[in-house]
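Input C-alpha cells:
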C-alpha cells in the first residue's frame, strides 16, 4: 500500500510499504477514507521529537471503513469509524478512571528508556508519533492496524459525512478538554493563546461551557477571523502587546482562565523566545515555552491555567514565582479522547459544534508531502488539510 513516511527533518515521502495485518485478536484493519495533518505532526516534521526512524508512517487523525477484524474485536466489517489518536486498553487502572491517554498497555516494553529518564514514567501508545510512543504506523496511509479496536474507535452513523466527524480523533476533544480543564464558570473571561485547530475548538467549547468573553490571541489574521466568527474578541500580537491588551480588556485584573494552545514552537520576536530558539538550534534546549510563560503572567490571581499545548523536555525562565504568588492551578496532558468522543459526536449531530469551518484544503493522500510543506509555510490560510486516499485531484 501507499503511506506517508518520515525520512528526516522536512523530508516526508509517499512510500510503498507492506499492508498491515491483524497481530492481536483485539485488532482491526481500517481502509482510511480521511486523515488530517495536525499541528503536532509539524513537531515531527521540524525534527523536534526524538526516537523517529526513517520510514515511520505518520498520521494520528484518521477515520475509515473496517475491512478486517480480529476474533475479539467488537466491530463489524463495513462499519465506518473514527479512531482516537491515543491507544488505550480500556481495562487498566488508568482506563478505569477514564484517563485513557495515561494507559501504559499500548506500549511495547522495550522503548521506554528515554521516556523514563525524561518523565519518570513510560509514555502511552500513540499512532504515528515516534518510537517513544510505541512506534505504531499511523493513518496517513491507505490502510492502518488499530489495536484495542473494541475500546477506541467510535462507529459513525450512516449518512454523516467524514468531514463532519473526522476531528473527533484529536483536535475537537483536545479543544474541549482544554476548556474543561480551564474550569470555566458562567460569566468568565477566558484567554486562548493560539488560533490553530486546538485553539479554535477551545474557543467554541469555552462559550458552550458558559464563558461570557473569550479573547483569542495569534498573529495570523485569517485564523483570528475564524475565532471572531464564534464571538471571540481578538489580539494580534504583532499589532498590540498581549499582556497590556489583556489588562486593558479586563480592567487590570487579567482573564479568569488562560489556555495555552501554542506549544513548543512559539512564534514571535520576544526576548525569551529568541533565547529559546538559539538554545534549541544549538541543542542546549528543546522547547520554546513563550506562550505558557505569558499565559501565567497574564492570568488573574486565583485563576486557572489549562495547557493542551505539547511540550517535550525541560524549560527555563518558567515564572514559578508568579504561579505561586497568584495562587494559580494548572491542568494539562494528552487528551483522553475516548472519554469525550460519544458526547462530542452527539454535539456535532445536534449542530451545537461546527467542525467543517476549519478545513481549508482537501487533497489526495498522494499529495501529502506537498500538504506538509503548505501547512508549515502558509499557516495563515492553511488551517487544516484533510487527505483523502480515494481522491485524485485536490479540491
Ligand atoms: N494535548 C493533546 O492531546 C494535543 C492534541 C493535539 C494537539 N496538541 C498540541 O496543541 C498545540 C496546538 O495545536 P494546533 O494543531 O492548533 O497547532 P497549530 O500549529 O496549527 O497552531 C498553533 C497556533 O499558535 C499560534 N502562535 C504561535 N506563537 C504564538 C504566540 N506567541 N502567541 C499566540 N499565538 C501563537 C500560531 O500562529 C498558530 O496559529 C500544539 O502544541 C499541538 O501539539 C495537543
Ligand atoms: Zn493531532
Ligand atoms: Zn489501559
Amino acid at each position: 500500500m501507499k503511506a506517508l513516511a518520515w525520512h528526516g527533518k522536512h523530508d516526508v515521502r509517499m512510500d510503498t510499504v507492506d499492508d498491515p495485518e491483524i497481530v492481536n485478536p483485539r485488532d482491526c484493519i481500517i481502509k482510511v477514507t480521511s486523515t488530517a495533518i495536525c499541528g503536532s505532526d509539524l513537531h515531527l516534521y521540524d525534527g523536534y521529537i526524538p526516537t523517529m526512524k526513517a520510514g515511520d508512517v505518520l498520521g494520528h487523525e484518521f477515520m475509515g471503513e473496517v475491512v478486517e477484524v480480529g476474533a475479539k474485536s467488537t466491530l463489524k466489517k463495513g462499519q465506518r469509524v473514527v479512531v482516537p489518536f491515543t491507544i488505550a486498553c480500556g481495562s487498566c487502572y488508568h482506563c478505569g478512571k477514564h484517563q485513557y491517554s495515561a494507559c501504559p498497555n499500548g506500549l511495547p516494553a522495550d522503548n521506554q528508556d528515554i521516556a523514563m529518564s525524561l518523565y519518570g514514567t513510560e509514555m502511552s501508545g500513540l499512532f504515528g508519533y515516534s518510537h517513544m510512543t510505541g512506534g505504531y504506523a499511523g493513518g496517513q496511509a491507505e490502510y492502518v492496524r488499530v489495536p484495542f479496536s473494541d475500546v477506541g474507535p467510535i462507529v459513525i452513523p450512516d449518512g454523516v459525512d467524514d468531514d463532519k466527524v473526522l476531528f473527533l480523533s484529536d483536535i475537537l476533544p483536545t479543544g474541549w478538554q482544554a476548556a474543561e480543564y480551564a474550569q470555566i464558570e458562567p460569566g468568565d473571561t477566558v484567554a486562548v493563546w493560539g488560533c490553530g485547530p486546538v485553539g479554535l475548538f477551545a474557543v467554541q467549547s469555552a462559550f458552550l461551557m458558559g464563558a461570557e468573553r473569550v479573547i483569542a490571541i495569534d498573529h495570523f489574521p485569517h485564523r483570528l477571523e475564524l475565532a471572531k466568527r464564534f464571538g471571540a474578541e481578538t489580539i494580534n500580537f504583532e499589532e498590540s502587546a498581549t499582556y497590556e491588551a489583556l489588562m486593558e480588556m479586563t480592567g487590570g485584573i487579567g482573564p479568569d482562565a488562560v489556555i495555552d494552545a501554542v506549544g513548543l514552537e512559539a512564534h514571535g520576536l520576544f526576548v525569551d523566545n529568541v533565547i529559546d530558539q538559539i538554545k534549541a538550534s544549538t541543542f542546549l534546549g528543546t522547547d520554546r515555552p513563550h506562550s505558557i510563560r505569558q499565559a501565567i503572567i497574564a492570568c488573574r490571581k486565583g485563576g486557572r491555567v489549562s495547557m493542551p499545548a505539547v511540550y517535550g523536555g525541560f524549560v527555563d525562565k518558567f515564572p514559578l514565582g508568579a504561579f505561586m504568588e497568584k495562587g494559580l492551578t494548572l491542568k494539562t496532558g494528552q487528551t483522553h479522547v475516548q472519554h469525550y468522543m460519544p458526547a462530542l459526536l452527539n454535539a456535532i449531530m445536534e449542530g451545537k459544534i461546527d467542525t467543517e469551518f476549519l478545513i481549508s484544503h482537501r487533497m489526495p493522500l498522494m499529495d501529502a508531502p506537498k500538504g506538509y510543506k503548505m501547512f508549515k509555510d502558509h499557516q495563515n490560510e492553511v488551517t487544516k488539510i484533510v487527505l483523502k486516499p480515494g481522491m485524485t485531484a485536490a479540491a
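The mean pLDDT is 95. The pocket of zinc ion (ligand 3) is lined by residues 88-90, 92, 94-95, 103, 105 (CB under 6 Å).
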